[in-house]
Design brief:
Shape: globular
Largest sheet: 6 strands, antiparallel
Number of strands: 6
Helix content: 25-40%
Structural class: alpha+beta
C-alpha cells in the first residue's frame, strides 16, 4: 500500500490535530539512521516530499530555557537515542500511532475521542505507516517493547523513556532507506 500526500496529511491532522504533537519526516542522509532522526527532531531538515507534518509544540527553547531548535526534545546523542528506543512490528506501529492520540497511550481511550471506530482509526494509522515503504523499521520509547515487538497498547504504560522535557512523551520513529519519520505526542506539563 502506498499513500499520497493528501491522504497522509489528512491522517496526520485527523489523529493528532487535537493533541500536543510533533510529526515530521526528513531525508536519510547518513548510514546511521539515528543521526537522521536527530536531524528531524532538531528541525534541521525539511520533509523531502514537501508534505506538511505537525508541530503543535513550541520550538526555540532548550530544556534550560535557552533557545534551541530541538525543543521540546532533549539534546541527545545517537547512542542515547538508540538506547531509549526499541524495535516494534509494523502493525504494532499502527496501533501505537492510534494510542498516541489518546490519554495514557491506550487504544481504548482513543475510541471516545473519534467518531470513527477502531478499524477506521487503524486505517488512518496504516496510511501513516505506509509512507515509509515496503520494509521500514519502527522504534518506540515504550520500554515494554524491549522484549515484545508487539506491546499491548490497551495496557496502561507506567513508564517510557523520556526524550523531551515533558512529564510524558510517547513516540514512534519510522526509518526507511529514503526517510526518517518522527511521530511524538506529549503531556503539556513540565
Amino acid at each position: 500500500m502506498s499513500v499520497e500526500k493528501a491522504e497522509w496529511e489528512a491522517a496526520v491532522r485527523k489523529l493528532y490535530g487535537g493533541t500536543f504533537a510533533y510529526v515530521a519526516t526528513g531525508p536519510r542522509r547518513h548510514e546511521d539512521w539515528r543521526i537522521d532522526v536527530l536531524d528531524v527532531m532538531r528541525r534541521a531538515v525539511g520533509d523531502p516530499r514537501g508534505w506538511a507534518g505537525l508541530a503543535d509544540c513550541p520550538e526555540g527553547y532548550s530544556e534550560d530555557g535557552e533557545e534551541g531548535p530541538s525543543y521540546p526534545f532533549k539534546e541527545l546523542t545517537p547512542d542515547v537515542l538508540g538506547e531509549r528506543l526499541y524495535a516494534i512490528e509494523p502493525e504494532a506501529a499502527a496501533e501505537q500511532l492510534v494510542a498516541m492520540a489518546a490519554p495514557g497511550c491506550r487504544l481504548s481511550n482513543a475510541l471516545p475521542l473519534f467518531a470513527e471506530g477502531l478499524d477506521e482509526l487503524l486505517g488512518l494509522a496504516r496510511s501513516l505507516v505506509s509512507r515509509h515503504g515496503e520494509a521500514p523499521e519502527f522504534f518506540t520509547n515504550v520500554p515494554q517493547a524491549y522484549d515484545d515487538r508487539h506491546p499491548d497498547y490497551d495496557a496502561t504504560f507506567r513508564t517510557w523513556h523520556d526524550l523531551t522535557v515533558y512529564v510524558q512523551d510517547i513516540g514512534l520513529v519510522a526509518v526507511s532507506d529514503a526517510e526518517a519519520g518522527v511521530y511524538w505526542t506529549f503531556a503539556p506539563e513540565h
